[in-house]
Specification:
Elements (H helix, E strand, L loop, with lengths): L9 E4 L5 H11 L3 E6 L17 H4 L4 H4 L15 H4 L5 E5 L5 H12 L3 E4 L5 H5 L3 H7 L4 E4 L16 H8 L1 H4 L15 H24 L3 E4 L2 H5 L4 H10 L17 E5 L13 E5 L3 H10 L14 H6 L1 H12 L4 H10 L4 E4 L9 H6 L2 E6 L4 E6 L23 H8 L4 H9 L13
Parallel strand pairs: 1-2, 1-4, 2-3, 4-5, 5-6
Antiparallel strand pairs: 7-8, 8-9, 10-11
Helix pairs in contact: 1-10
Length: about 450
């Protein structure tokens, strides 16, 4: 690996679930040495899996995001292959320590003294109960940059509330703004876009703080309330209410700017949605010129020549009709064939791909979005996502597959902390150093 932008930065990763690990993954992709500190006596929720040792029978009852282990087998160390985990822990290191004990806290302090950044995303009070406060971190390292990413901030009436991304989006009102007009909000599936937004902002905050420290020599505490941060997803709804008094509602796949036609339409399908064999295409018309181009591809049918459809305002008023007519037309085409025909005519369009079809998409392949990575314990080689930015002078790649629990204990303890062989063996016997979760953890 060449000298990447953050090659001289060391991050202590105390984050869990998705938002924090996504932030540290972005930093690791840019070259930061991210050390995930893990406790072999504590299974952090929804990070290395819901349970440590699931049976194969259990996996058959779970959605792919929970039960989609390699080869549909839990493997010898299931916590190293959980589908939630493997997507977020490339390019990182892992060490273990029982931070519940004073000796473990002392080890963390020694690590912090050699680090640039400490990042976590637990609810307010979690780290404080362990003795890890901002003041304590500064005692270990006066220039440390600390990023905290609680769901609802470190103060206020919701400060102690625990939440995943799905709960965040409900509290913020996003769940009320998405979905189809003819369905109740309870039919919505959970999504976790707030986690991604918090992760990207967390990574950006770290880089800005590093720049600030380079200028001033001072570290800082950064608080990112995930709910507040993610509210930018639907700023148009806030502004529409504040300026116009309008309360926005669910509009399905339609445009928030009233562009029309704008939606997702059925194509020829080899099967049904139950088997993920339904086919759809997204079509977006944002100008009168694109509408004329779409009409031409459709063979300029009589219904499309109506005078009130010549302008976007007229089309926006007739979106139900447009959706009905377009769906009748698109049903007769293969999604890729129609996609190419529309794009060639200047109409923005793309097939809506079920996840397994992404691997064979020519554009995805050309961009190198997926790369084979070999999982620990010789479980096998599988394709996982790669860094989503391409930097020509300092190319970001995958140089470390999803990291196994405690995979870098030797490096962290012997090289970074300089422990002797005797101390290493003692820490191992005392349960700090491990590559397996304690047998008492199910």
């Amino acid at each position: 690996m060449g000298h990447l932008p953050l090659s001289d930065v060391r991050v202590i990763d105390f984050s869990v679930v998705w938002a924090g690990p996504f932030a540290t993954m972005l930093l690791a992709d840019l070259g930061a040495e991210v050390i995930k500190v893990e406790n072999p006596h504590v299974l952090q929720p929804a990070t290395r899996g819901g349970i440590a040792r699931p049976s194969k029978a259990m996996l058959q009852t779970q959605d792919a995001i929970i039960g989609g282990y390699p080869n549909n087998e839990p493997g010898p160390r299931p916590w190293n292959y959980h589908p939630f985990f493997v997507q977020l822990y490339r390019n990182k290191k892992s060490c273990t320590v029982d931070w519940r004990r004073p000796e473990g806290l002392e080890i963390i302090g020694r690590l912090v003294a050699k680090a640039d950044v400490f990042i976590e995303n637990t609810v307010q009070g979690t780290l404080e109960r362990l003795g890890i406060t901002y003041e304590w971190l500064r005692e270990m390292n006066e220039e440390i940059i600390v990023v905290r990413m609680p769901a609802y901030g470190l103060s206020g009436p919701y400060a102690s509330a625990r939440a995943f991304g799905a709960q965040l989006e409900s509290v913020m009102g996003h769940t009320l703004l998405r979905g189809y007009r003819d369905l109740d909000v309870s039919s919505n599936r959970a999504i976790y876009s707030a986690d991604y937004l918090a992760g990207t902002q967390g990574a950006l905050a770290v880089m800005m703080a590093l720049w600030h420290r380079k200028k001033t020599g001072r570290g800082q505490l950064i608080e990112i309330g995930q709910a507040e941060n993610a509210s930018g997803m639907f700023v148009q709804a806030f502004m529409d209410y504040a300026l116009n008094g309008n309360v926005q509602t669910r509009i399905g796949n339609r445009s928030v700017h009233d562009a029309a036609p704008y939606g997702v339409y059925p194509c020829l399908s080899p099967g049904n949605a139950t088997e993920a064999e339904d086919r759809w295409i997204a079509i977006t018309v944002t100008s009168d010129e694109e509408w004329l181009a779409l009409r031409k591809v459709m063979g300029d049918p009589a219904w499309a020549n109506a005078a009130d459809l010549a302008t976007n305002a007229g089309r926006a008023a007739e979106q139900d009709l447009l959706d009905e007519k377009l769906a009748e037309w698109t049903r007769g085409f293969d999604d890729y064939d129609l996609f190419h025909r529309l794009q060639a005519a200047g109409v923005p369009a793309a097939p809506v791909l079920e996840a397994s079809r992404l691997f064979d998409d020519p554009h995805v392949q050309a961009r190198g979005i997926y790369q084979p990575q070999r999982l620990f314990d010789d479980v096998g080689t599988f394709r996982f996502t790669t860094p989503f930015y391409r930097l020509p002078e300092t190319p970001a790649t995958v140089h470390q597959p999803p990291v196994a629990l405690g995979e870098h204990n030797d490096y962290v303890y012997r090289e970074l902390l300089g422990v002797s062989d005797e101390e290493y063996e003692r820490l191992k016997a005392d349960g700090h150093i491990a590559m397996d979760f304690d047998p008492s953890i199910a």
